[in-house]
Amino acid sequence: MELLLRLKATSRATRGWLLGLAAGIGLITAPVAEAQTTKVDLELVLAVDVSASMDYDEHLLQRNGYVEAFRHKDVIDAILSGPNGRIAVTYLEWAGTYEPIQTIPWTMIASEKDALAFADRMAAEQLYSERLTSISSALYSAQNLIETNAFTANRRVIDVSGDGANNTGDPVEEARAYVIGRGTTINGLPILLNKPLEWYDIDHLDRYYKQCVIGGDGAFIAPVYDLRHMGATIRKKLVMEIAQIEVAPEAAPIQFAEAQPSPTPGESPETSLLHRVQLKAPTGPVDCMIGEKVWNSRGGFGGFGLPSGGRRGRER
Questions:
Q1: What is the pLDDT of residue 255?
Q2: C-alpha–C-alpha distance, residues 147 and 285, integer Å
Q3: What b/e sequence results for 158-180 when a residue is b if at least 16 CB atoms lie within 10 Å of its CB, and e otherwise?
Q4: pLDDT (0 to 100) of residue 13
Q5: 263 and 208: one domain?
């Protein structure tokens, strides 16, 4: 497992070579599918940005948005409305190319009591931040969590929230193609903070998420244009992911990726999936490497809430 986790910091080609080597020497054993015995309606990874581009108060608003959502009747009703009446969810915090932290392990929610307990656990976790933004590392780590958990579902979703573009690690398009090629949908919650742009910010983060991050069947973004609507937007997004129901009209509308039901002649299915996330944007396509280009032109910064030794460590 330690080897698998370290693979996320390598290039895609190196990762494939190492996986082959690991399999050859017996470090990767029986197929994970055999252990996936608990049927749920949805496997959901909440992949939450904890980069230092947001201050403590903004991180607290984001965390509280998820806490309040799992305490809300709309989300609880959505969870219980499925054919199995339960989902599996985990809370993953990420920033740069360090391995993202699975703050809350996979948890099955099958009742109001389960949902409230999950919310309470989120509320009790320490807030922290780290430098840089690697959406690609978050996607690889989240997909690994899905493929190694003890659940099975017809729908698997990685829900990425963040306030910036990928600026370190593998290119985000490469990670996205890998994840949706494995049958997982990526949804996004781009946070467009209501404050002056810093040098490392990019214009139109919502467009970047639509064109460069989300993908797969029914993919969408739920943008946050005003921090006062953070909680309502998170609730809207979760209910849509769990039960495809629209709630919270006070929040900004959900924007779905455009679907292409089947490949065009001569096109591979994976390429067709990539087309699902393209915008008909009159301003032209977004440069999916813009985050790296902007960051590499300047310097960096640190974070908050970290112990004196640096990165927060956890045993999970």
A1: 72
A2: 32
A3: bbbbbbbbbbbbbbbbbbbbbbb
A4: 38
A5: yes
Whole-number Å distance between alpha carbons of 240 and 259: 17
Is residue 7 in some structural domain? yes
User: Global pTM?
Assistant: 0.75
Determine the length of the chain: 316
The tokens for 223 are 């943008």
Tell me, yes or no, whether 267 lies in a domain.
yes
Full DSSP string of 148-211: TSSEE-S-EEEEEEESS---SSS-HHHHHHHHHHTT-EEEEEEB--SSPPPTT--S-HHHHIII
CATH code (residue 276): 3.40.50.410
> Which range marks the domain in which residue 75 is found?
34-296
Closest CA to 173 of 201, 203, 211, 147: 211
What stretch of H or E contains 143?
helix 135-147
Q: Are residues 23 and 127 in the same domain?
A: no
Do 4 and 84 fall into the same domain? no
Span 47-100, pLDDT tens digits: 999 987 777 887 888 899 999 999 999 999 999 999 999 999 999 999 887 889
Whether 165 contacts 133, CB under 8 Å: yes
Beta strands in the chain (DSSP E): 38-39, 43-49, 87-94, 101-109, 151-152, 156-162, 185-190, 220-221, 255-256
Contacts of 205 (CB under 8 A, 6+ apart): 163, 164, 165, 190, 191, 192, 223
When the pLDDT of each residue in the chain is averaged and rounded to a whole number, the result is 75
| Residues 38 and 159 occupy one common structural domain | yes
Number of domains in the chain: 2
CB 16 within 8 A of CB 64: no
Task: Tell me if 302 is assigned to some domain.
Answer: no
Tell me if 304 is assigned to some domain. Answer: no
Residue type at 205? L
Hey, what amino acid is at 298?
R
Cβ–Cβ < 8 Å for 91, 234 = no
Work out the average pLDDT over 184-199.
Answer: 78
